[in-house]
Amino acid sequence: MMEQVPTSVLSAEQCHLGEGPTYDATTDTAWWFDIREGKLFEAQLGSGSVRIHALGRMASALGRIDAERQLIVAEDGLYIRKLADGAMTLFCPLEADNPATRSNDCRVHQSGTFWIGTMGKKAEPKAGAIYALHRGKISTLFPGISIPNSICFSPDGATGYFTDTPRAMLYAVPLNPATGLPRGEPEVLLRHSGIGGLDGSVCDADGQIWNACWGASRVDVYSPQGERLRSIGVPAKQASCPAFVGPDLSRLLVTSAWQDMDAAARAADPQAGCTFLLEASARGRAEPDVKLA
To answer: What does the UniProt keyword field contain (predicted)?
Structure first.
């Protein structure tokens, strides 16, 4: 059964490919990206004001370093961005010698290690990978990934999740909670079937996995054992990624996209690309800061 919860539009700016939402609880600010258009969105939730920053390159995710800086994951590397003026400085390159790829799904582990997914700009098979930025150094975790998504972590930091969307399987991998690095091989937690595909995910305080189901106008909630517990409607077909927001982290921000839609499909999906707030009664968790050293 599809559950409908009170839903509002946080931003009516229709993203070509909305992705990478995160929330800074210290400033009550939500951030997300339009990957294809090279835009970073900044929303003050208390006032509802939204600002759009042009980045000049494709980017898909960020991690908070401290009150003054963010780490932006872009198509050619990782950049330190100053909040005061938006100035960006290259921290380290990533696949900068491969113009056919870009960044995609990413998330920060409780230890401060940043998992980063890359993929082909045309979703070429096995053109991407999942990396870990651990204490300033990048290592490859899982090569040969086509569309990395659903990167998230259990509340105790001992399990990491990810998917390669075309494979329609969500994987669980045991981690060292102190480092966020694998200490075992990935195993299949669940196999997706039916309409849509596994896209971005986030774990709540109870270890449940909230997954945006691309192409199905919903967010699915799974238990740590892979059982589907809830399906919550989203007013756009291509929901892409969720994040917990608000002072008590009980609301769900969901990005969406109009990518690959023709005129008829967009007319049938008039809110495609909008960014939504769902009153989902979640028990969310705050996003940790990324550690560079």
So the answer is: Metal-binding, Zinc
